C-alpha cells in the first residue's frame, strides 16, 4: 500500500508556519487533554491539534476497519496493536481530510469547531501506556567516551560491544512527557578519594540525548523476530532525555549496570512520529566491522537522517544550544536492537519503548551528554548569559529538538523540554 500521506506536493488548508515540524507530511500521533477536560487521541498540523476521536465520531474514517472507540482513549496502545496496515490507512486518510483541495471538513465550520484546537489550548499527555522500557547503548562514540572516562582509556570499548546491541531494562514508571519538571535525585555516592559512601542529593545531574522507538505487539513468548521483519513492528519514534545522575551511576553500576542513576526520570516528546513519515529520510548506518552474527545481519539502509540538538535554558534566560548530533551516527540499528531483544524469546508488547542510548557523533560538539561535552566536568561550557556549566544546575531547563529535512520537506518531533528542580521535599 502506498504511503500517499508522504506526498511532498500536498498542502493543507490548516495553516502551517514556516519551518514547522508539523507539515501535513508528518501526521504524528499523540494524546491530549482538551480545555473541556476530554482526553483524546490526536494528531497535529502546524500549531493545530486535531481530535481524532471527534473525527471518528463524525464518520471521517468511514471504510477503515476500526473499533468504535479506537481514538476516544487515553493511550494509543489499541491503535498501535492494530498494526502497520491500519496505521498507514489512517495516516493516508488524515492527509486527504486536511488536503487543501478537499472541502469536506474545510468548509464545515461546525465540524471544524469540534475537531480542531489550538496547540496552546491542549495539554499533551504520555502517548502510550509504556509497559516496558529498555535502554540500549548503541552509539560507538558514546560507549567509547564513557569507557575512557569510567574505566580504561586503552580498552574503552568492551569486547562484547561490537557483537551485541548492549542494553538494560529500565523503569517505565517514571517516564514523563515534555513539560513535567524533574527533581534532583538523592542517592548513594562515593566521594573522590574516600572509602565510605555518602547519601545525599546527586551533584552530577546530566541529560542523555536519545531517541526512542515505540513497538507494536511483536511476538509470542519464545519467538524471535527475524531481522528482515523487525521494522514492521516499530510504530514510530520520539525524542528521549534519559536523565542520569553520574555520581550515583559511577558508584552503583558495577557489576550489574545502571539502576537508580537512571530510573528517577526519563522525559519524552509527546508526538510519536511514524516510521512511515520518516521513510523519505532513510540512510545507511555506519559500516559494522566485524560483521555481526548472521541473526543480526541486514542489507540496505536501516538508519534515518534525524538532526538532533540540545540546549540549556537557565531560569529567566534564553536557551543556549550546546550540542548537535544526528540519529544516523548510531552503530546498531533499531531493527538489530529489536531482533536482539527478542532473540531469547523475550516478549515485546504494544507500547513498549526502546531507547537508542545517548547519541554522540564523531566531533566534540556532537556529543550527547554533559559528561562527554565537558569531559567529566574538566571543560565547563559557557552559556550565553555568561555562566558556566559542568553538569545541570537546579532550575535549568534542558530542551531537545529533532527534525528531518531534504530538498522537499521538513518534519520533526517538536521538543522535549524539562526543568530540573531541587530535591523533592516530603510534606
Ligand atoms: Ca540512556
What attributes does this structure have?
10 helices, five-stranded antiparallel sheet, SH3 type barrels, globular, binds calcium ion, alpha+beta, eight-stranded mixed sheet, 17% helix, 2 domains, 427 residues, Fumarylacetoacetate hydrolase, domain 2, single chain
Could you please describe the fold and organization of this structure?
With 427 residues, this protein is of the alpha+beta class. The protein has two domains: 4-124, Fumarylacetoacetase, N-terminal domain (SH3 type barrels), CATH 2.30.30.230; 133-421, Fumarylacetoacetase-like, C-terminal domain (Fumarylacetoacetate hydrolase, domain 2, Alpha-Beta Complex), CATH 3.90.850. The chain contains ten helices and 26 strands. The chain has helices at residues 52-57, 77-81, 84-97, 103-106, 109-115, 140-150, 246-252, 275-278, 334-342, 370-373, and strands spanning 30-33, 39-45, 48-51, 116-118, 123-124, 133-136, 167-169, 175-177, 182-183, 186-189, 198-201, 205-206, 209-215, 234-241, 244-245, 266-268, 273-274, 282-283, 303-304, 307-313, 320-326, 353-355, 381-382, 388-389, 397-405, 410-421. Strands 6, 7, 8, 13, 14, 16, 17 and 22 form an eight-stranded mixed β-sheet that branches. The longest helix is centred in the N-terminal third of the chain and has 14 residues, at 84-97. The model has no long low-confidence stretch (mean pLDDT 97). The structure holds calcium ion. Calcium ion (CA) binds next to loops. Residues 135, 208, 210, 242, 355, 357-358 line the site of calcium ion. It comes from Flavobacterium hiemivividum. Ca(2+) binds at residues 135, 208, 210, 242. This is fumarylacetoacetase.
